[in-house]
Amino acid sequence: MKTSLLIAGAGYLGSEIANLATGYRVTTSTKSGGNGHEACDLSSIEQVSKLSKKIPNPEFIVHCASSGRGGVEAYRAVFVEGAQNLLRFFPNSHLILTSSTSVYHQTDGSDVDELSTTYPIRETSQLLLEAEQIVLESNGAVARLAGLYGPGRSVVLRKFLDGSAAIEESGQRILNQIHVQDAALATLHLANQKLSGIFNVTDDHPSSQLKCYQELANYFDKPLPPTGKKNTSRKRAWTHKRVLNRKIRETGWEPIFPRYFDALDSLTSAL
Fold first, then answer.
1. How many domains does the chain have?
2. Can you give the CATH number for the domain in which 31 is found?
3. pTM surpassing 0.90?
4. Quick one: DSSP state of residue 76?
């Protein structure tokens, strides 16, 4: 019999995980349900309780629900309360939370790994850390994802093509990214190995903003974006750091797309 897996939040990433989880008996949930998904608001004790009585107890749960671009209250509801409720009603399941490298606050271009300090200034990132701690205390796993991109979704590419991109000052700020397929496979790897702890999930070659736009300009034969000021109003705060993925690589995972530019052909074909 296949191992059971609950994907709590079948959005962009969750749907990719479901597509690739061929060795599992998969149940997916979304807040509204429909299209084969169970309906479950993770912040609702009643709804998570109802879900736990409706489906067989899963061996693994991936909590990859989205805040829906919401603010502090949405983060608290989805991540903190969501993690608490999943652990309350599925106490025997191994929980994996997809978090974000935004919890690293560094602005000096330094290398960061899972032991680096995390003092984010944004309350949303602070709530991610609170949710992480809840999961870690249950011996679960946390996947800190770099900027997610893939077919139909790439902030860098979209801004370059629609003309809204700007190179911030000298363009040295480092962009840490991960293809959605690699993020999904990394999450399944954590389940397959039943790993616990924190793991950075990013590609092998973070790139400076300037280099990224230079490669895009060469690829599309277009001029570089104009130079502008720092975007200090970024939702997850302005940071400048190189996120390292050594820890998860040492467990046997490696990205299919080691560099953002390795995926460009597939990204442009989806435009």
1. 1
2. 3.40.50.720
3. yes
4. I
